[in-house]
Amino acid sequence: MAARADLYRQLASLLSPGSTARFDEPLSRHTTWGVGGPADLYVEPGSESDLLAALRFARLHQIRLRVIGSGSNLLVLDHGFRGIIVCLRHPCFRSIEPARDQLRCGAGAPLAAIVREAARARLGGLEFLEGIPGTVGGALRMNAGAMNRSFFDVLLRVRFMSLDGAVSEIAAAELQAGYRSCPFFETHIALSATLQAAPSPPETIRRLIALYRRRRQAQPAGRSAGCTFKNPGAISAGQLIDELGLKGARVGHAVVSTVHANFILNDGGATARDILALLDRIRSEVRSRRGIQLEPEVQIIGGEPAPAPMP
Ligand SMILES: Cc1cc2nc3c(=O)[nH]c(=O)nc-3n(C[C@H](O)[C@H](O)[C@H](O)COP(=O)(O)OP(=O)(O)OC[C@H]3O[C@@H](n4cnc5c(N)ncnc54)[C@H](O)[C@@H]3O)c2cc1C
Where in the chain is the domain with CATH 3.30.43.10? Predict the structure, then answer.
């Protein structure tokens, strides 16, 4: 363990002063659920070259590395993450540049800021992102969306870094994305995305933003990760869970919302273990009583296999 700690210190010393590096950082501070143990090393790179340095270092020493956004779709286990967590929160990864009918957005840009900037530039088509509390990177990995529109509907191209450090750009049409998933970003780090928009009258943009904002009234306040399970087909996961009478079911401080049954709330002091146990209970009841296998939408961090040796 001492050797590992030395390695982390070595990496931290390689980064420029614009970067942030913290040891044993509680990941509960970086997830909307507010649960999760510490990451050995938490890095907010201050530049692409510092991101590259972290990536190369992790590969060389076979250390796990995972990128997170705003942690709004993450369940971090209580024992935390043995490796390096990278968060593209530095301003250099958060730019939003409208140009004619497009916006180029850094991977760390919050979706709410994109909706705001698009409206300021009188560009419409992105209003559906209102109320999704994630970043561009998370929206790419999850193909986030609402009310029958998803991120890939407006995506033109993505700049990304491969795990070997090469930076390239890819057209959206070349990426395979499905319902709440784009597997490409399991192994590639998104750096920025170019989104399609269209000039639109300000009052139309305002009306659509208000419409998407109203959706939030059907969602519970409190700490959650949004929808916990993917919808398994024609019936929504929330409806299934509700029909089985599981609203209000709890394990410790994790509780199924009484407002929206697909939301699990941390009502104060929940652990990842509480949440996982509640997830298991819901899945097994849905499986045994309805014959349906629910798949979590949330990404679980902390149980990853060790990285492969360098070729
Ligand atoms: C109250 C609430 C409401 C929500 N409503 C919706 C909704 O309406 N629709 C919806 O789709 N989702 C919704 N969500 C879920 C969540 O906001 C989305 O999934 C969002 O896209 C996650 O973005 P993030 O930045 O928080 O990603 P994180 O949760 O931090 O990470 C999610 C995944 O993305 C990966 N990732 C993050 N950044 C990068 C990057 N730069 N490159 C590669 N991979 C990356 C992570 O490794 C992880 O696998 C909601 C969540 C909450 C808490």
Answer: 2-91
Crossing angle for the helix pair 48-60 and 2-14, nearest 10 degrees?
150
**Active-site residue 297, yes or no?**
yes
Q: At 9, list the tokens.
A: 């210190």
Q: Which of 52, 67, 93, 142 to mutate to test the pocket of ligand 1 (most atoms within 8 A of CB)?
A: 142
Q: Which residues pair with 68 in a beta bridge?
A: 87
Mutate to test the pocket of ligand 1, among 95, 132, 149, 175 (most ligand atoms within 8 A of CB): 132
Tell me which H or E stretch contains 4.
Answer: helix 2-14
Half-sphere exposure of 156 (CA within 13 A, CB side): 10
Neighbours of 260 (CB within 10 A): 19
pLDDT band at 308 (very low <50, low <70, confident <90, very high): low
**CB contact set of 119 (below 8 Å; sequence gap of 6+):** 202, 205, 206, 209
CATH fold of 220-295, please? Answer: 3.90.78
Å from CA of 227 to ligand 1 middle: 11
CATH fold, domain 94-200, is 3.30.465
Measure CA of the first residue to CA of the last residue in the chain; give whole Å: 25
Average pLDDT over residues 141-159: 96
Architecture field, domain 2-91: 2-Layer Sandwich (3.30)
Name the pTM for this structure. Answer: 0.96
- In the chain, which segments carry CATH 3.30.465.10? 94-200
